[in-house]
Amino acid sequence: MSISPDDVRNYLTLSTDSTSRYTNATITSNINAALTFLERSTNRYFTARTATALTFSTNGEPLMDIPGLRTATSVTLNGATLVADQTYWLLPDSQQTGITTQIQLRPFVKRNGPWWLAIPEWFDRNLDSPYFPGNWGGGLPNDLVITGDWGYVDPVLTVPQFGIAWKILAAWYTIRPQAVLTGAGQTPDGNVLNLEELPAEVTQFIVDW
Prior knowledge:
The protein is of the alpha+beta class and 209 residues long. It has helices at residues 5-11, 24-42, 155-158, 160-175, 200-208, and strands at residues 49-56, 63-77, 80-81, 89-92, 100-104, 144-150, 184-186, 192-194. Strands 1, 2, 3, 4, 5 and 6 form a 6-stranded antiparallel sheet that branches. Helix 1 crosses helix 4 (160-175) and helix 2 (24-42) packs across helix 4 (160-175). The longest helix is centred in the N-terminal third of the chain and has 19 residues, at 24-42.
């Protein structure tokens, strides 16, 4: 489910798409721009991306932020295929919405000592080997590749706050042209609108997510 031009026009109580500012093409462009802005501002994917491979540089860190993984089909580190819940772990987002926002590449230990002591079968898996990727200490650029499905199947339904922010930001883009030069607009009955700042619903969504 996505936001449509009619959703934006209805939100703004516009009854026509006869002007270039309110045509389907113009509002669709605003919807796409709003989506890109929200995803870049939160470092999250909300709309679905299927069978997409993304590349990251770990810099040898054991924990990486990722933009919202729904399911993983392949995870490789330095070209070696990792195994779920053995050599990598997917960590859910804090809202528990079914999306993974972090990947952990090795266990943590509280006491002083090598990380592999946290795994009972470390000897059988040769985790103490200096050739095991987790022991390298550093990392090559673009060493982590995750292939899978990203974002939500239906983000508007699953994350209602996102649907509201998406629609409001698209509406703000749609009405903002009248305020490009002055930062303010005017309603048909003469009321002045401050269009210099993003809508509060949008800024709060970015803070929350």
